[in-house]
């Protein structure tokens, strides 16, 4: 559950998500659930020309299983805290 | 909104029933779910599949499936696995700089095939990028078939070269466009 909790601490931050089909979307992280499904607001699709079907999308629900990367704002990640939490094994 | 802490009280961590969630629990901070110490937390009910999909119910959505299909319809029902039920669905086929709409009707989609769900901004839905134009279905479909075949041969070649080098191609055994 560590990463579930971790993503919860990042709500309302702008993140960029890369999906397994190479689509990259940037948006405000609104919510995350136990499967790491992600809800994004104010979505901006990078390389939109390739993905015309997403041109009028304002917010998005992304299934956790198709996410390849989540790019986070460096300043918002407390690496020390994360390391501690990992060592505690919870 | 509040900053959350990494340490969740596990007792509150799960709330299954979305009905209960919408009727009884006041959203936002200040509920009885607040832990006694540490930074204030949002209620855990905010962080369930149900809460995420509840906002999208009865809205016009773009559904992208794992096989690359794009369906546009109204989300009527769903469950915790993101199995989805869609009404008045139209499949939009893209190929080259053309697209076509095919009326499909009702869809029940198994969750594992869902890639993403996007809410259509109704003010902007007619702003289709100028680079693509509507064309008859048959024309777009034929072009798409050609493109798919081209991609398939390209993929096959790449996979072959990769596996010769000892690499396992990404998401092999799984269709993902």
TrEMBL record, chain A:
Record-level Gene Ontology MF annotations: RNA binding
Where are the membrane-spanning stretches? none
A GO cellular component term found in this entry reads:
P-body
Question: Where found, per UniProt?
Answer: Nucleus
Assigned keywords, A-Z: mRNA processing, mRNA splicing, Nucleus, Ribonucleoprotein, RNA-binding, Spliceosome
Q: Which InterPro entries match?
A: LSM_dom_sf, Sm, Sm_dom_euk/arc, U6_snRNA_Lsm2
Q: Which CDD domains match?
A: LSm2
According to its UniProt entry, the protein's GO biological process terms are: mRNA splicing, via spliceosome
Subunit structure and binding partners: Component of the heptameric LSM1-LSM7 complex, which consists of LSM1, LSM2, LSM3, LSM4, LSM5, LSM6 and LSM7. Component of the heptameric LSM2-LSM8 complex, which consists of LSM2, LSM3, LSM4, LSM5, LSM6, LSM7 and LSM8. The LSm subunits form a seven-membered ring structure with a doughnut shape.
Q: Give the protein's function.
A: Component of LSm protein complexes, which are involved in RNA processing and may function in a chaperone-like manner.
Spell out the family assignment given in the record's similarity comment. Belongs to the snRNP Sm proteins family.
- The protein's name is LSM complex subunit LSm2
UniProtKB/TrEMBL annotation, chain B:
Q: Where is this region: Disordered?
A: 1-45
Q: Which SMART domains match?
A: Sm (SM00651)
- Stored Gene3D superfamilies: 2.30.30.100
> Taking every annotated instance into account, which residue ranges of this chain make up the domain Sm?
48-123
Q: Which domain of life is it from?
A: Eukaryota
Work out whether the entry's keyword set contains Ribonucleoprotein. yes
One short Pfam name that applies is: LSM
SUPFAM superfamilies according to UniProt: Sm-like ribonucleoproteins
Q: What is the protein's given name?
A: U6 snRNA-associated Sm-like protein LSm1
Organism the protein comes from: Penicillium atrosanguineum
């Amino acid at each position: 559950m560590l990463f579930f909790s971790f993503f919860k601490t990042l709500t309302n931050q702008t993140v960029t998500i890369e999906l397994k089909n190479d689509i990259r979307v940037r948006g405000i992280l609104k919510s995350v659930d136990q499967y790491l499904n992600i809800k994004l607001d104010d979505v901006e699709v990078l390389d939109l020309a390739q993905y015309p079907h997403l041109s009028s999308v304002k917010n998005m629900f992304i299934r956790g299983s198709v996410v390849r990367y989540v790019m986070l704002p460096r300043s918002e990640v407390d690496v020390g805290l994360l390391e501690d939490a990992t060592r505690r094994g919870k | 909104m509040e900053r959350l802490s990494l340490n969740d009280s596990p007792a509150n961590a799960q709330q299954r029933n979305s009905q209960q969630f919408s009727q009884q629990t006041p959203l936002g901070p200040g509920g009885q779910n607040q832990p006694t110490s540490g930074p204030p937390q949002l209620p855990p009910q905010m962080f369930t599949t149900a809460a995420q999909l509840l906002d999208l119910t009865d809205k016009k959505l773009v559904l992208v499936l794992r096989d690359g299909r794009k369906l546009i319809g109204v989300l009527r029902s769903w469950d915790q696995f993101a199995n989805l039920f869609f009404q008045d669905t139209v499949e939009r086929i893209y190929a080259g700089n053309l697209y076509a709409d095919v009326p499909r009707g009702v869809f029940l989609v198994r969750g594992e095939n869902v890639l993403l769900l996007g809410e259509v901004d109704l003010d902007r839905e007619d702003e289709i990028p100028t680079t693509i134009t509507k064309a008859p279905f048959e024309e777009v479909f034929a072009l798409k078939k050609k493109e798919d075949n081209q991609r398939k041969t390209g993929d096959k070649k790449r996979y072959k070269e990769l596996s010769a080098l000892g690499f396992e191609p990404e998401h092999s055994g799984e269709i993902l466009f």
